[in-house]
């Protein structure tokens, strides 16, 4: 690890390695934004090209989408609190809040799988029309990101049990936190751009 | 300003309450208000951007000691790229050639194509 130790900054920024990793992760997030931008653009262009399949307004249900949004917003909040407790030096608090975040994320994925199964049972699949292909790819790419985040967070919690809070693990917790908040940012735009607009138009 | 002084995570709680409130406001605007569709779309997109800013500034610590200028630089430019990709695609693919600017050959072709798509 680095010989330069910075004081007056939170633990995860205390080494050069930590600072560089965090900046590198922000660059990755910027690249992720362009990935999702292309998927949103495809979705927007193919909007209303449903061919003979059902219209989104017939299928989308406000209730389940609101529940999913609240679940993900709450998980983002608990994840932020985990970073807050980490900065106060509380290992237990960090672990408990990451665990709650994990449970909320899993519930979210459960709802999303249920939602997709429900749509397929109504006869709307990836192959139904250009619109539905774009929908499944956009929402599905987000869902896969959440699943990756869940696996990643489990790994980080295990490392916290093994090593406690050090500059090394603090950096890892902070970065998985950034990733989790970022998924929430993307979901806000899916909730608004896909579900709400799909129910209005 | 040091982190240790804030014992209670107020900005997380304020951010959380605000994002829940904005979510329900957006849902209400879309589903229950009588605004014209264009205004609904504009206002819920504005609400989404505000929510994204709440995440970035209140939860992700996009500006703080130790982070430097890189994070908000990254996010700002990525947001610009995203806006150009989405609005540019919509402009060229959905709105670009639907106006008749004097009946050039090329434009007439595009019109026929649009008509064929809408026939579905």
UniProtKB/TrEMBL annotation, chain A:
GO biological process terms, semicolon-separated: aerobic electron transport chain; ATP synthesis coupled electron transport
Membrane topology value: Multi-pass membrane protein
Molecular function terms from GO: cytochrome-c oxidase activity; oxidoreductase activity
Primary location class: membrane
Transmembrane segments: 23-47, 59-84, 96-114, 134-161, 173-197
Function: Catalyzes quinol oxidation with the concomitant reduction of oxygen to water.
Protein known as: Quinol oxidase subunit 3
Protein source organism: Lacicoccus qingdaonensis
UniProtKB/TrEMBL annotation, chain B:
Subcellular localization(s) per the UniProt record: Cell membrane
Enzyme Commission number(s) of this protein: 1.10.3.-
Membrane topology classification: Multi-pass membrane protein
Keywords associated with the record: Cell membrane, Membrane, Oxidoreductase, Transmembrane, Transmembrane helix
Catalytic activity, as annotated: 2 a quinol + O2 = 2 a quinone + 2 H2O
Gene Ontology annotations of biological process type: aerobic electron transport chain; ATP synthesis coupled electron transport; electron transport coupled proton transport
Residues passing through the membrane, by range: 12-31, 37-63, 75-97
Record keyword Transmembrane helix present: yes
Major site of localization recorded for this protein: membrane
GO cellular component: cytochrome o ubiquinol oxidase complex; plasma membrane
Alphabetical list of Pfam families matching this protein: COX4_pro (PF03626)
InterPro entries tied to this protein: Cyt_c_oxidase_su4_prok (IPR005171), Cytochrome_c_oxidase_bac_sub4 (IPR050968), QoxD (IPR014250)
Any GO molecular function: cytochrome bo3 ubiquinol oxidase activity
Record family assignment: Belongs to the cytochrome c oxidase bacterial subunit 4 family.
NCBIfam families found in the cross-reference section: QoxD
Stored PANTHER family: CYTOCHROME BO(3) UBIQUINOL OXIDASE SUBUNIT 4
Function: Catalyzes quinol oxidation with the concomitant reduction of oxygen to water.
Protein's name according to its UniProt entry: Quinol oxidase subunit 4
